Amino acid sequence: MEPTGTAVSSTINLVKTILGAGLLAIPFAFKNDGVLVGTLLTLLAAVTSGFGLFILSKSSKTLINPRNSSFFTLCMLTYPLLAPLFDLAMIVQCFGVGLSYLVLIGDLFPRLFGGEANFWILISAVVTVPLCCLKKLDNLRYSSILGLFALAYLSLLVVTCFVHGTLFTHGYERYRGEVSWFKVYDAKGLMSTFSIIVFAYTGSMNLFSIINELKDNSMKNISLVINRSISISTLVFLTVGITGYLTFGSNTLGNIILNYDPDSVWVHIGRLCLGSMVMLSFPLLFHPCRIAINNLIVWLEIQLRKEPSITGEPENEMRSDRGEATPIRLSIEDEDRESLSGLENGDIESANAEEIQIHRGTNVEHTPFPDFRFYIITAVLLLSIYTIALRIRSFAFVLAIVGATGSTSISFTLPGLFGYKLIGTDSLAIGEMVSPRDRFYKRCSGLLAWYGVGIMAFSLYVTLKYGTD
């Protein structure tokens, strides 16, 4: 498909992927953390998540054709036998959050218009199903714009209530609790809400689609999209988090909307915006989930055929009789070492130890996704999500586990592993010295992977210890 994405449309989709219903829980995190610590954690999450997106983009540039980049192609280059585990993490993350959005729809709309939760969940299919059938992420830019307008209204509602009800009102102390500026208000609460801020920036599931669809997919343009998206998201998180918290202080609830007058027409509009935003966010999670399922199918096909790309056997890059190809890996052989004579010993040792892996040929990098499979996966996946959504009402604990494992994997651990393994290999493969900047990115990638493991362990511990309290 011809790339149609622009920096603006890509930024819109990435911002909408990051900003979701979780935005309304940020003030609650600030309640427990205090203004200073909450702000510092938000900035930490912004930097680490933004760096993770950058490293994924940088890793995609080691492919001959970066427009065919995906978690799957990079996994097949670096850790081919673990590729299904990584795609499974993506599926669990996107499926779980998408399911929570449908459950939220069933909770929101009956309060606005009456009726049963299941009725509104089914009605939402009128909007979500057509959007889920679109093949390109860039085609969702218009629905993302509508979703951003809904988010803008919710943010404006929070800020306006702060300005009108707190800054220009003298009696706000009667409904506002204690405000903590510099100290942590609740240590236990800090631990249990830490993941809210860290996972708020999860947007890597759609990054490769953005890279593949950008007309100008140079690192400069991709970095521009990432920097703009992270900056806009951070501004919104801090604005809503701080003003929402300063409005209600220690009385701030898990969903800031619940703190406002339920009979207010402005709050009713806010609930409508929230429901609309959730419906328009669902396709953005469905898109990467469907791709991950296709990747699992392709991986299984490769295993069943016992393709040499998995074992590293040199014989064949493509099977022309099938018109299909699979990733291959090439190592630097003895005869190639002379071309690396200008490299430092550490580079050569690292190159040999890691068996530098690269793609050769555009077709080899492509992950096949025929139309019939696209529509079958779409139908089965939609049917599964909607069937489960009609049968459950709350699964907060399960969702917390999903976030702790899925979000950390695709936001920190995987980008770190890819960056550590791939950055600089394109230079080594052609006999050039790895630049100091790439060396720095490589080391930071390793730290990011360990950071992700640490966040995952901490989040799982807190969820298991406090999740059912």
Class, according to the CATH hierarchy?
A: Mainly Alpha
Report the sheet with the most strands, covering strand number, pairing sense and barrel closure: 2 strands, antiparallel
Envelope shape: globular
Number of helices: 18
Overall average residue pLDDT? 77
Pfam family, one: Aa_trans
GO cellular component, one term: fungal-type vacuole membrane
GO molecular function, one term: L-histidine transmembrane transporter activity
InterPro entries: AA_transpt_TM
Describe the structure.
The protein has 469 residues and is mainly α. The protein has one domain (7-307, 367-400): Hydantoin permease (Orthogonal Bundle). The chain contains 18 helices and two strands. It has helices at 7-18, 26-33, 35-60, 71-78, 83-113, 117-132, 141-167, 187-198, 207-213, 219-248, 265-305, 308-311, 345-354, 362-365, 371-389, 396-422, 425-429, 436-466, and strands at 318-319, 324-325. A two-stranded antiparallel ribbon has the order 1-2. Strand 1 and strand 2 form a beta hairpin. The longest helix is centred in the middle third of the chain and has 41 residues, at 265-305. Mean pLDDT is 77; it is low at 307-365. It is a multi-pass membrane protein. It comes from Torulaspora globosa. Pfam families: Aa_trans (PF01490).
